[in-house]
Amino acid sequence: MATQYEISGASAKGIAASVEQGVVDGALVPGTALPPVRRLAERLGVSPGTAATAYKELRRRGIVVTQGRGGTVVAPTPAVASRRPPPVPVGARDLASGHPDPAFLPALLPTARLSPGVRSHRAQPRLAGLEELTRAWYERDGVPAEHLSFAHGALDCVARLLSVELRPGDAVAMEDPGYHHLLDLVPALGLRSVPVAVDDEGIRPDALRAALRAGVRAVVCSPRGQNPYGGYFTAARRDALLGVLGEAPGEVLVIEDDHAADVAGVPLYSLTAGGAGGGLGGGVDVG
């Protein structure tokens, strides 16, 4: 389907930036077909190689995908930094953002009353009290807490883990549907997302098995408070997932985003606490 958005640019970088801007502005929605390389090159007065290089860069960054004879189209979840989630319909509750209702939050201390000794939680040496509280929090739920680290939020932690443990082009199993910022993060890191269906008990074992057979190197999941369905692992589901991970032919990194923690109102059945063997190459609980 032809698009009304006019792609511009005299270089590969400029063409790629024009397409990305169209995606950011919503003029190029997911599934929109882009012009064939030669046609775009003729219209812009550049060589076919320049246009092809622009498309290659956009594919590498996860903004577009190539569908064989179907040509190049905007990716289902294009990785652009400023893409916004869809507006919340009137009368609906926004459960996607994960933000609590401000009416239920306690009043914060005025900044003038804060201790001058307060510093970053990632400062060195670490705040001993903070580390002790965090370790006790995890150990209470049976999560191994021997190795502990701090990051600037869950997304920062997940990004660091995937960047260190995986290589560009590796596949990551992601909840479908899932948290839109996580879905954007994976292609932005040069990785491929493999959707894994979820139900009321989180990711489904059959869907995870299919993803592992497809060669995923990592799994990102929510043990409770799954966004947007709200599902949570039961003990039986946790054990079933561990069984599937044990069948994996190679090691798999498992990242649990326990963003809701106690607010979820259900106990934590963590994959990292299940004593998994087999393909579980490493488990990380992000709280």
From TrEMBL:
DNA-binding recorded as keyword: yes
Keywords: DNA-binding, Pyridoxal phosphate, Transcription, Transcription regulation
Matching SMART domains: HTH_GNTR
Domain HTH gntR-type: 9-77
A UniProt-annotated Pfam family: GntR
SUPFAM superfamilies named in the record: PLP-dependent transferases (SSF53383), Winged helix' DNA-binding domain (SSF46785)
GO MF assignments: DNA binding; DNA-binding transcription factor activity
Family the UniProt entry places it in: In the C-terminal section; belongs to the class-I pyridoxal-phosphate-dependent aminotransferase family.
Record-given protein name: GntR family transcriptional regulator
